[in-house]
Input
Amino acid sequence: MHKNQKITILSHVLVWIVLFSMPYILSYGEEQELNRVIAHFWLPLVFYALIFYINYFFLIDRFLFNKKTMLFVIVNGVIIVFFLLLKEYIEEVYFQDLMRKSRQDKNAAGPPFKMFIYVQMLSYFAPLLFSIAVKTTKRWVQTEAERKEAVNIKLKSELQHLHYQLQPHFFFNSLNNIYALVDISPEQAKSSIHSLSKLMRYMLYDTNEELVSLSKEIDFMKKYIDLMKLRVSDKTEVTYCFPSQETGIKIAPLLFISLIENAFKHGVSASKESSILINMTTNNKTVFFSIENDNFPKKINDKSGSGIGLPNVEKRLELLYPNKNSFKTSVIENRFVVQLEIETS
Output
């Protein structure tokens, strides 16, 4: 039996034990006549319990939740009337003296008999309404849990799609860089292939985890930057600064690589001097990342690079770090600036 089911059963048992003990709890040690307790308290309580559980396990699911409200009301009306008649029958057969005395007392100073019947009928609606409330709450909790599970599955699916979207584009772009080196510098091309194999091993195996250590991600970015630097001319200056000490921070993989790729795609010119500045700092569990490069917008038909950089980053940040990130881009004096702040805790 599931742990939650055991807790539910135990809580129900405890509630009914308390309810059946109420006559003695409220009497403060005074002696109670057993026949009176059975007739006036325990017998109605048994019927209340039956009404509660008949509705809880059968009627609410079959009728009320299936929008058969009228049938639900009629069935419960029949059950309540039946229990009222059964109660009267049991009292007349087994508790004659007690009932005779009780009617004499009511005739002497109590409310009219019809009023007494109405009050009894209303009392039978209490367990009915309570069962509806409990069942509705349980159903709402279950529905909410299923909704959250569906949202979680959708989130993982979207993240997986974005992850798979990035990998082939990254590989394609890196091969383009190596291809450009084959004729110019075969030895550098060989070295680049070896570096690319290490990068791809990281992307294929390590990044399948939800979180990786920031130090691993930094090492991956450094290798990628060095690979990209092989293709640019001496007119392009690339400077980067990453934390040198182990921070203990865990972060979603491949969040920064598209920004770096974007800088090399749009910040490098074959004929003009340019520079790319990359900086990362940490403060407790918060990561600050900035990248600045000259702005050389590519033509629409230019297919170099992945073409998925910034939208991919924004979407992943929205899914992975909702309300825990700040992502800003701007162009200042023909320099494209990206500032990213992530709270990882």
